[in-house]
Amino acid sequence: xxxxxLVDLHLCMGCKGCEIACKxxxxxxxxxxxxxxxxxxxxxxxxxxxxxTPLRCNHCENAPCERICPVSALHYIENGIVNIxxxxxxxxxxxxxxxxxxxxYIDPETQTADKCTYCAHRIASSMMPACVVACPVGANIxxxxxxxxxxxxxxxxxxxxxxxxxxxxxxNPHHFYVGASQVxxxxxASKREEGYDLFNKLTHLxxxxxx
Amino acid sequence: MVQETLAATHAVVTLDVALPDIFWGWFVTMNMxxxxxxxxxxxxxxxxxxxxxDEMSGVRTSAITVSFIMMNVFLLFTLADLHQPFRxxxxxxxxxxTSAITVxxxxxxxxxxxxSIMMVMMIRKEKCLLTSNANASFDKLLFWVTLLAIPVTxxxxxxxxxxxxxxxxxxxxxxxxxxxxxxxxxxAAILLLGGSKLSDxxxxxxxxxxxLSALLAFIIYMSEYIFGAMKSxxxxxxxxxxxxxxxxxxxxxxxxxVAYILPMILIALYRVSRSNSILTLAxxxxxxxxxxVKHVWLVIPQLLSLS
Lengths: 211, 307
Description:
The structure holds two protein chains of two kinds. Chain A is of the alpha+beta class. Chain A has a single domain, classed as Alpha-Beta Plaits (2-Layer Sandwich), CATH 3.30.70.20. Chain A has seven helices and ten strands. The N and C termini of chain A lie far apart (about 40 Å). The longest helix of chain B has 30 residues, at about 135-160. Chain B is globular and about 75 Å long. The model of chain B has no long low-confidence stretch (mean pLDDT about 95). Classes of the chains: A alpha+beta, B mainly alpha. Chains A and B meet through strand 2, helix 2 and helix 3 of A and strand 1, helix 2, helix 5 and helix 9 of B.
């Protein structure tokens, strides 16, 4: 079994229900996110539109975070999930530096690395990840990539525009997008400018970093 | 180039979490800088042993002491940079051997242990508790410590290479830069420590190493600066931080001048004038500038958003 995720961006409406469900399920501390929805505005007024992209750990088959972790705190489990043992993590931030997707953060409460685990604890109890359950439009499709009859496999078979983020990194992500453009997936395809954030003055809990 | 589409799309990120950007800051810079001096001094001691062993007596104790101190500074900052420093022992009890961090931690520990033995040898010799065999034993051990100093110097490049998210750091260039940083700072440090105890010929030898290391390191940085952007869009975006009015442009050029350009000029002047003051200034500038250069190269890839 190799579990994977697919997000149909044609369906996503940026409600952030998945983000909140993840926060609640995994008790993710303030100012940190295991899953987040990025908004990018495209075009000039009045011809504008807003794109939504849920971003989470890609559970790569060739995960740089697993490779660089000096104590195997980040490790594979049999179903392909890249899991994390927070009790073992030494907080070196090697994984934060290695992940090409910016999906790993240092938990300000435990001072250890943390990330999306595809709700491994729920899957162990035969439940779907919290974000899948919360999505009002079924944009999150989750299942076994090795089972050709699973929803995710059928979705991949039916659609010709299945993409992953940063394929050039050779990480073989188990997280796919349908209906994505460069603006959705490539950070270099959009600008980050002061004053354009919908939420201003975001504050962060102290991490103990050394800038 | 996807960035060319920006003019058409006017795509602007209007909501995304601002993940804290610089995770490896000046503590890691201190780590790399101190390790360069620590292993660099060992390389220079070994070269001195092979070239002119008679002059070893003047620098044996001082060089190994400074190297030992710098290696401990390196270990201290490595430990302090961890968010869970009291779990450092996990590296030894739950080692993950694909990680350059693990391999490096083990090798650096063995390296410092061997240096500790060399320190004890020198201390006991000073107290006349051992015969002159201490020097011979020291020199024999120096060979193995020098061999170990090579991977200890290089492993940080391995960590940077394993940081898949940071396109700028490539193993071939980073490994050469790590060795050059060690030969640059090591030769500078031994010139400062040796002072009048070193002959003119030996000073000239170490001055040449300092100058050549500066030249080669400068060439590599300039190669990356000019040509790096031609192969990868991500590298181009990172290098933009040190070009034009980029956030780290001034710091980058201060580093290049202080670590490489000025020492090269001063070494050339020394070879004409044989002024020890000029040589001392070149050595101090190289060591100070190396910190700045390392810091800039460490930080700029972390400024680029990954999402």
